[in-house]
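Q: Hi! First time asking for a complex rather than a single chain. Here are the components, and I think there are two in total. Is that enough to go on?
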Amino acid sequence: MRRYETDAGVFEVPDFPVIQTKKGQVKLPVMCPILVPRHLVVANNYNPNHVPDNNMQLLLESIVSNGFTFAVVTVYDEERRCFVIVDGFHRNTIFGERWLDADIIPIIVLEQTMAERMAATVQFNRARGVHQVELMAELVRALVEQGLTDEEISTRLGMEPEEVFRLKQITGIAELFKNQIYSRSWEMVEVDEHV
Amino acid sequence: MLKQVYVNKSVLEAARERIAYIFDEFENIIVSISGGKDSTVLAHLALKEANRRGRRIGLFFLDEEVVYESTIEQVDYLMNLYPQNTIKLWLQIEFNLTNATSLTEPYLRCWEAGKHKIWMRPKRKDAIHHPSWDRESEVILNKDIGLDFYAVLKNFQLTRHNTAFLVGLRATESPNRWRAVSKNPGYKDIFWSTAMENGNVSFYPLYDWNFHDIWKYIYDEKLRYSKIYDYMYKKGLGLSEIRVSSLIHEKSFKALVELPEFEPKTYDRLLRRVKGISVGNLYGKESKMLQVSKLPKNFKSWRHYRDFLLETYPDQTKKEIFVRRFEKHLDNEYVARQQCRQLVLNDYENNLPVDNKPDPRIERLKYWQEVL
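A: Yes, that's all I need. Here is the structure of the assembled complex.
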């Protein structure tokens, strides 16, 4: 049993049940969603996924007709005493003022470190959606600063090593040509064909 | 016969001399800029010369409205590099753009009056908002589309006299265009120029620059450049695929696929502005839909598919353009596939012309039948 203290009271999450698989035990957080006031659920500041407006409309229609089938996945932030979204930013947005304007929302609370949390967000997003390149580069840099190797980054984020390398090059393309020398100039000259 | 001869100078020295020559010969100079890398280098070289001589030159940008935000930022940067030497000629006027992304909206009128609420961005205070020429005697180059990009350029140029227009054309990047413009000298014995009306002349001072020369100059001079180039590089995409201009042109489909990732806000605005954009985004890289390299399953032949596309074409007047054009073509599968591509891309302007010749596969077959 885990206990999370917030300004809207204490929320309890039972231990996640597990199942046996050929990769060992797998936890089932999906079995333990909780309902919390929506103001306790906040966006992370590193999610580089962006959904265009027309797709938001689709998401809204899907929720209205099928119901809310996936809880928003979060981790608890002790300092801010709230739940930070790992997956489901747009589902959470749909519950917000502009669209459904709901008071409460079902969430799942994971327990992870900061680096794991970032990686989790990207893993969740890779399967669908797209990432803005610049934010992705920021994310890779943040992970490098936390001491992860290129290899660790590439396995955790599900990227090719080459992509990690490219994203690490924050200098830009002009830098690549700095050691070149200028080409020789040429002109168009009228010449005698018989020479 | 004209021959290419190397001289003992770097392209940079040569370009500086060419620009100095234009300043000696012409009182009025206008540099055409697009926000791309080549015109960035050209504008910088010209502005430095203007600054050295204490003169003012025009920077001309024809704003197509539906462009990358990064392009706008780049143009803004160039226009404000040497304010005391710059005459801003940033045109934000109504004209028609081909819209390859939609069949029901075959062209888009950029900066259309009354649609200001859905414009990609508001007009700028420092831009020119109305044509400076007489609308009655305006030149129209293509009757089907009306006032288009090239017609605006033409009408603008006609408002000027004895003016040098500097263009960032490079021979290695556009060999065909280079051959066409360099055939005859446009001014005195200068082969890197073309003559226009009213004593105006276009000059191409960067004609011999290579790709790496452009980037080296940008690096050496610590110039800003459009972010799109870095995005593309980080994505591992070919740098030659990048166009900084209109996002809804036949040739920019690939860019549309990447747009939500590069500039999500631009993409959102584009969705609101133009019908058909999400088709371009979803299918830009799918061969069947818009590149038309695979015949859809339910059609027996390209001719069959073409007839179907023609029959179901939503716009009657545009349909006639296609019918008239196709009547002049050969009737074979090779040609029919290209006709399908024109129909799917809504290319009634013939920007991607059909290569009208006998089917090469059939020809090869015939050849071998004769040989054997």
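A: The helical segments of chain A are 53-66, 89-94, 114-126, 133-145, 150-157, 161-168. Let me know if you'd like any chain examined more closely.
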